[in-house]
Amino acid sequence: MESSREQIKILHLQGLTNIQIRRKLSHLNLSRLFVYRTIKRYEETGTIVPKKKPGKKRSVRTPAVIKAVKERIRRNPARSGRKMAREMNMSHFAMQTILKKDLGLKAFRKQKIHGLTSKNIADRVTRSRLLLKTHAGHNFIFSDEKLFTLEAPMNKQNDRVYGTCIREVPRDKRAVERFQNASAVMVWGAISTKGKLPLLFIDKGVKINKNYYLEHVLQDHLEPYAKKLFGNDSFCFQQDSAPAHKASIVQEWCKEHLPCFISASEWPASSPDLNPLDYSIWGYMLGKLGDVKNLNLDGFKTRLLKIWDEMPDEMVRAACNDFQKRLRAVIKCKGERFEIN
Fold first, then answer.
1. pTM of the model
2. DSSP-derived pairing of the beta strands 140-149 and 195-196
3. How far, rounded to the nearest angstrom, does the alpha carbon of residue 243 sit from its chain's CA centroid?
4. Is 340 exposed, middle or buried (0-12, 13-18, 19+ CB in 10 A)?
5. Which positions of the chain have pLDDT values less than 50?
6. Count of CB atoms within 10 A of residue 255's CB?
7. Which residues lie across from 261 on neighbouring strands?
8. Which of 74, 102, 330, 336 is the most buried (most CB within 10 A)?
9. Nearest-CA neighbor of 218 among 143, 292, 155, 296?
């Protein structure tokens, strides 16, 4: 391009017109505007080199501003992007660009977790140490209750429908029905590294008090199926600190009839992150349920049983084997909640 401008200049100094210059340099296929601008630039400035256009200067996303946003996020990751934009006198779009492009940050939804009091936190550390010391090497049977509701699951953040307008989306696709008195099924489940005990349905309308729990869950269900699963091998039974579980008659029965069990004084309160059913199994079952709106109650129970029975043994074993690792994580985090990669 520079050589073309130089040839245009030489021919211009020789007295040729713009049209004659273009004809002379026809092999270069120069536009009329290019020749005109080159000659005009030379006559006005004495040079054929065009001025470099300055790039668009950042008016907001300067290094100092990016550093200031980074420091604010470091002090408080829960800051609102819109609020920071107003405080720093910039557009929301500019703030989002800084957060996502310049700082490489992503927005995550806050999670709901069980609250922990200072006593809970201290007990979690003490009892986790005790469990590691007194029950290391045991084959555990982990147990828990879960209420499954006969409703289609919905993820408010990720469940989307697409259309040019909402009215074009079929009604049954754009909404998930919720009923005030939706049917629900309460189940009791138990798992171990040797396999699962059969899923137990709690009768509708039954309140799980100490007598019902002892007779129908422990005596009629846990005891015979645990013997069938383990034979003459020893096992250690786990249950959380629900009122029916820590009742004195229940604790005494477990002491007399089970080879080993985690007593109410040993299990850390408010610790679903230590029970494999809570941190793994129930979530797996909810994910497998899918759309249940066309099922009746019997059909719903059948589906729950099918999911339970077909649950991979490898997944169950892996969930149980994570228990001791999670106890150590509690100790490492000094009783606070933790993340397992």
1. 0.67
2. unpaired
3. 31
4. exposed
5. 179-181
6. 11
7. 237
8. 330
9. 143
